């Protein structure tokens, strides 16, 4: 979410290759140059592909350090960073796609890339499996990737560009909680990061586990509030 | 939903072939023999396919009337009715599938088939695009087809086998309302039908339009209750 009050990133950490192969991997990656840029990348889709994209971005940033080649730590704008991620994704899809499609395995993945590079405002991009991308605006200040539908209605109801980031974080956690109630492919822990405009620091990262008292409070409180709100509305009466 | 308190069916009526070709079609069909059976069929997916399946089921029930051939109005059990629907679906997919797949158009569709045939309890089936099917049980007393994810969390939270059917209807409408807020492919009017066990009548059918005062009350009341419930929970505090 790219809001007037700040940027908020949240990702779960459940991965699966079939229901008998469920694991935990962080889906939030950081690329930082202190006092100059913070880029946050969230991923969904084929884990091998997302990891390869991240590894290549890091490896090339290290290798080209000082040599001036275009990399994630020196591109001059968030737009150029999104292009670079899209290009790297296309490279992996081209490399791994043919053999995967022989086994009817989906090579594709999606990324959310957000953050700020000095000289620009904070920006947020949704990078498609084909490597092209769209950018968030005040009209539509948030993106979701992956198992997005279960948790979308609550965000659509309460979040807009002027929502305080503390409330946006609450909403993101409720959205994840609703999703986890209906779908096993999303699971704790949740990584959250909040970034203040023009801070250029690492942001505040927090990992939310099952034992997190705030998450427990939301989980219990929201479920109870929904049931109470539901009970308070009148039941359907049929016109005979 | 096949509940202890009765059966409840609900379907929207939005169809689309791309965003520039949006129409209204009822997705709820009835097959009835007074005092002997009521079958209710809900559909999702390719409209030409679902309509063909329904037309063939009706045409063959009329044509074979009195001749003893197996049809939707004389099969002895709901299980056999689900087999017949599955077979008819396979027939259409075999007929229309090859030309549609040349144009990369999806021929598939899904059905929910529920109701009661004298001699049996009410039963509910979820018929897959391949023509096979599963049956609801008290553990999982409801099915959704089509654009199901947005509206699933609220059903998962409040509906179980022992929920009164008036509350289940309220929940179904809230579920549709949440879906319509996040997805344009679902739209009013909503057809609802409630059927009481061992009634063998036509059930009570109600069509809910935008002007329906009860739906308006739910729409406004639920949105407001959610915002209040959200505001009552504490905002996130970051541990620095």
Automatic annotation (TrEMBL), chains A, B:
Q: Which GO terms describe its biological process?
A: proteolysis involved in protein catabolic process
The cross-references to CDD domains, in alphabetical order and at most eight, read: proteasome_beta_bacterial
Signal sequence span is none
Give the SUPFAM superfamilies listed for this entry. Answer: N-terminal nucleophile aminohydrolases (Ntn hydrolases)
Q: What InterPro entries does the record tag this protein with?
A: Ntn_hydrolases_N, Proteasome_sua/b, UCP009120_prtse
Gene3D superfamilies according to UniProt? Glutamine Phosphoribosylpyrophosphate, subunit 1, domain 1 (3.60.20.10)
GO cellular component terms, alphabetically, are:
proteasome core complex
What superkingdom heads the lineage? Bacteria
- Official protein name in the record: Peptidase
The species is Aquitalea magnusonii
């Amino acid at each position: 979410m790219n809001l007037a009050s700040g940027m908020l990133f949240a990702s779960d950490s459940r991965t699966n290759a079939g229901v008998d192969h469920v694991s935990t991997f962080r889906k939030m990656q950081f690329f930082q140059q202190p006092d100059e840029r913070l880029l946050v990348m969230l991923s969904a889709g084929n884990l091998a592909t997302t990891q390869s994209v991240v590894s290549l971005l890091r490896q090339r940033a290290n290798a080209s350090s000082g040599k001036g080649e275009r990399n994630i730590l020196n591109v001059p704008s968030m737009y150029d960073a999104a292009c670079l991620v899209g290009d790297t994704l296309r490279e992996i899809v081209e490399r791994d796609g043919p053999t995967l499609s022989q086994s009817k395995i989906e090579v594709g993945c999606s990324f959310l890339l957000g953050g700020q590079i000095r000289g620009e405002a904070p920006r947020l991009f949704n990078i498609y499996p084909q490597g092209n991308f769209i950018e968030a605006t005040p009209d539509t200040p948030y993106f979701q990737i992956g198992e997005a539908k279960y948790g979308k209605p609550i965000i659509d109801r309460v979040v807009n560009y002027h929502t305080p980031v503390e409330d946006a974080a609450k909403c993101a956690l409720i959205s994840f909680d609703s999703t986890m109630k209906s779908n096993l492919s999303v699971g704790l822990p949740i990584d959250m990061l909040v970034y203040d405009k023009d801070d250029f620091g690492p942001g505040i990262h927090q990992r939310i586990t099952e034992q997190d008292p705030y998450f427990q409070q939301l989980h219990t409180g929201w479920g109870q509030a929904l049931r109470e709100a539901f009970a308070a509305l009148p039941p359907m009466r049929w016109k005979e």
